[in-house]
Amino acid sequence: MSNWKKLFKSKASGDEHPPSSRASADYGSDDQRAGNENNNRSSGSYGQNYSREASKTPVDGQATFSESRKTLASSDLSKISSGVNKLNLGDENKEPVLITKNLENTDPVIENDDEPSTSAGSSYSVSLSQQNSSNRMKPGLLTVKVYSSKDLEIPVPLRINKQILSKLASLGQHVNEEELNEKIDALNESLDEAANTNLSYYLPSTLRINSSAEPNKNVIAQYNLVYAIIEVENSSERISSVGNTIAHTKFNSVTTFDVTSPNNAILTIQIYIRIPGSLLESNKQEDHLIGSIMCKLSDLNRNSFDNLRPVRLLNHQWINLKNPYTDDDLIGSLNVTLDFKPLTKESKPLSIDDFDLLKVIGKGSFGKVMQVRKKDTGKIYALKSIRKAHIVNKMEVTHTLAEKFVLSRVNSPFIVPLKFAFQSSEKLYLVLSFINGGELFYHLQKARRFPLIRAKFYICELLSAIETLHSMNIVYRDLKPENILLDYQGHIALCDFGLCKINMKLDQKTNTFCGTPEYLAPELLLNKGYTRVVDFWTLGVLLYEMLTSLPPFYDEDVSIMYKKILEDPLIFPSDMDSVTKDLISKLLNRDPAQRLGYHGVSEIKSHQFFKDIDWVKLTNKGYIPPYKPQVKNSLDISNISSEFTDERPMDSVVDDFLSESVQKQFGGWTYVGSFGGSAN
């Protein structure tokens, strides 16, 4: 994994104008929708149709969200140094209820961290294979047990302050304070800063501090300096340290994931450190990525096994952590156990009763989107409910089925994956990964425009997502910031496939007039039919907007905007570099046959703009995003408008009668995972 910022230095800017809200439109179709001339469609996260008007400005408090977070800064630690044995962190550091299990009493790590268990073999590295394992795995449950780390290193230089280090040692949980103080006393404060990374052996991973605001009240709270993010199929869980030093952090946690495409599934574990500001030159608390593990589940399944029985993929194995800043160096190891339990034919079909309804996160005429918790695994998802009668009356059945078809077959790290699909007699349900870093639309509003390094990062991941769709003969047709989510790390996740067109071969044309006005390609406006290269036009518009704050031909009057799209010259800010201008100009060529990408995505990848990109590394999420959203855990809804989250979550009762012939249209709706390893 590499730091993305190393690749670029220049920035692009333009006039500071806030972006406007956009509504997608779908005016007719190639088949049964041909008669609908004005079927306006507002598109939002997870493909839910609701008005974007409420999202034009951030909700109160979001603009200063990062500033409002409590930090372990120098002012706090000065109190500690002066003898105040408490640190008021307020409610900000109270963790919501997450369903993970403590292994302390049931499956503990060994007590001597300097002599780790080798019963399952010595440390080894895992990497992503370019070929699928010959052993096919069925969908099922993956249980991840994380015990402890070994020899973790702090990735940035620290300031040596013996007084602060000693005080932190006194607050440490499950550490030998006397032994730590002996090590601290022996420290040479004149050490070169580069050598200070070994302070991981002197710092506790977990602090016990008084969290009460009242001077005479003693409320002990746990403050974690080390935490891990475990991710499988875009579902993530955060686990926190429970004690020992940073170098030998104890986690003792177990969590379970639903795995619907196990032959493509990748397990990622990333270890972060929250460094107190008093130990940094900036005097500000910073979260730094220490190291990561990434492995394909099917590669761990080295021995044949009965697909109906549980299997242990790793047994108390020490796995090497890769240094995210150099790719090659190791930066410690992590002791983990992985168990996989495949689903069987006897497994009970899913229903709405298998989920706890937590929050409403979107609403529209067809139904609503809710944040839910799956009762058996405790994992957080986005559940989209759709009224059958409504989509039948609005002639949206084909589009709804197409969306589910695409989501169930696509395999891209940059597309929101479908976990499950089920139905009742009145409703259809889609269960998707809950991506809670916020819409790109919101982040672009907040920043006005992005630096080149950030815009380029998003365009690269979007291009990878589009390449996956085109390889499956799917045209997206509605690329815009509202349909792009950021995950907890800052990677993109494309959502809303309600306007996509399936079975579109390379040179095949379609005539449906759909999309968002600011992004419509000229050939679509001229009603001459269009091919999959319309997605590259919208990619060019999006890149221009991210760098300048507005689409290139924007006008509040839609008819004038259409005229500009067809006729106006492309104007760039004076400080935009020539390579970026050239890429945008070629993507926004009004002649589809001359547009960059006409001969395939590889044509775009070969442009000078992408010369430094390792596309395999990018697909493996190997680059560190230039921006990380403020997301505390999988329950965090702070990046979602309170207009929705304040509403009571409930699965409303409807009394719609649908004939047997209509119900048959939804006969293949149910989805619990795929056996195959290919997205095609």
Automatic annotation (TrEMBL):
Compositionally biased region (Polar residues): 35-52, 63-77
CDD domains: YPK1_N_like
Biased composition range(s): Low complexity: 117-134
The organism's place on the tree of life at top rank: Eukaryota
Signal sequence segment: none
Region (Disordered): 1-77, 99-135
Protein kinase domain location: 355-610
Catalysed transformations (reactions): L-threonyl-[protein] + ATP = O-phospho-L-threonyl-[protein] + ADP + H(+); L-seryl-[protein] + ATP = O-phospho-L-seryl-[protein] + ADP + H(+)
Top EC class of this enzyme: transferase
InterPro entries: AGC-kinase_C, C2_domain_sf, Kinase-like_dom_sf, Pkinase_C, Prot_kinase_dom, Protein_kinase_ATP_BS, Ser/Thr_kinase_AS
GO biological process: eisosome assembly; filamentous growth; regulation of fungal-type cell wall organization; sphingolipid metabolic process
AGC-kinase C-terminal domain segment(s): 611-680
UniProt keyword annotations, A-Z: ATP-binding, Kinase, Lipid metabolism, Nucleotide-binding, Phosphoprotein, Serine/threonine-protein kinase, Sphingolipid metabolism, Transferase
GO cellular component assignments: membrane
SUPFAM superfamilies: Protein kinase-like (PK-like)
Annotated positions binding ATP: K388
Keyword Phosphoprotein: yes
Bilayer-spanning residue ranges: none
EC number per UniProt: 2.7.11.1
GO molecular function annotations of the record: ATP binding; protein serine kinase activity; protein serine/threonine kinase activity
UniProt family annotation: Belongs to the protein kinase superfamily. AGC Ser/Thr protein kinase family. RAC subfamily.
Name of the molecule in the record: non-specific serine/threonine protein kinase
Organism: Pichia membranifaciens
Lineage: Eukaryota, Fungi, Dikarya, Ascomycota, Saccharomycotina
